[in-house]
Specification:
heterodimer, A: mainly beta, 12 strands, 0% helix, B: 116 residues, mainly beta, four-stranded antiparallel β-sheet, globular
Chain lengths: 110, 116
């Protein structure tokens, strides 16, 4: 079945470090791909998305490119801030169902 | 515009008790869904609905019932709670349709349920 595998955490980085969180997927057809962010005590918020191969989603300095050949959608940010500390979820949508990865906890220290 | 609201925020149940988790949205979204979030498991889809009167099962539907009598409300019922249902429950909604903006889901703040 369809699924998402993402890098396990937790990840701890110093402020201004480069961030990569790996995400790969298994899906039939042509899924849409998403990254969601969850701040402590809150629900998930959409961070960025890509709906077809080679699309790049970007928001708030975060980027991810839909790579069909490697079935990947890795999240990157060039310079993280303390305010980026959160849990990040990779997800895919096929039809009416969404499948989420297990989440990667990021802590950025000053 | 309140978005997606969920009540209660916290609940403790004894095994065998029943309860209903409430979810409402004021964005006129056709699609609504329930997820549970467990440590190391991410979010898993329980049930979803594409409109009033239409519901379907997700990945982990056993032990849960839903109905959708209005566009705004999508309650989740636990008929006989079990400790395995201890989790954080999220409701989400989105517009149903094609186009890039059609697939963004809006999540509620969650309900933390403990079953003893």
């Amino acid at each position: 079945g369809d699924s998402v595998t993402q890098m396990e955490g937790p990840v701890t980085l110093s402020e201004e470090a480069f961030l990569t969180i790996n995400c790969t997927y298994t899906a039939t057809g042509y899924p849409s791909l998403f990254w969601y962010v969850q701040y402590p005590g809150e629900g998930l918020q959409l961070l960025l998305k890509a709906t077809k191969a080679d699309d790049k989603g970007s928001n708030k300095g975060f980027e991810a490119t839909y790579r069909k050949e490697t079935t990947s959608f890795h999240l990157e940010k060039g310079s993280v801030q303390v305010s980026d500390s959160a849990v990040y979820f990779c997800a895919l949508r096929t039809g009416n169902q969404f499948y989420f990865g297990t989440g990667t906890s990021l802590t950025v220290i000053p | 515009n309140a978005g997606v609201t969920q009540t209660p925020k916290f609940q403790v149940l004894k095994t065998g008790q029943s309860m209903t988790l409430q979810c409402a949205q004021d964005m006129n979204h056709e699609y609504m869904s329930w997820y549970r979030q467990d440590p190391g498991m991410g979010l898993r889809l329980i049930h979803y609905s594409v409109g009033a009167g239409i519901t379907d099962q997700g990945e982990v539907p056993n032990g849960y019932n839903v109905s959708r009598s209005t566009t705004e409300d999508f309650p989740l019922r636990l008929l006989s709670a079990a400790p395995s249902q201890t989790s954080v429950y999220f409701c989400a909604s989105r517009k149903q349709g094609r186009g890039i903006t059609g697939w963004e889901q809006y999540f509620g703040p969650g309900t933390r349920l403990t079953v003893t």
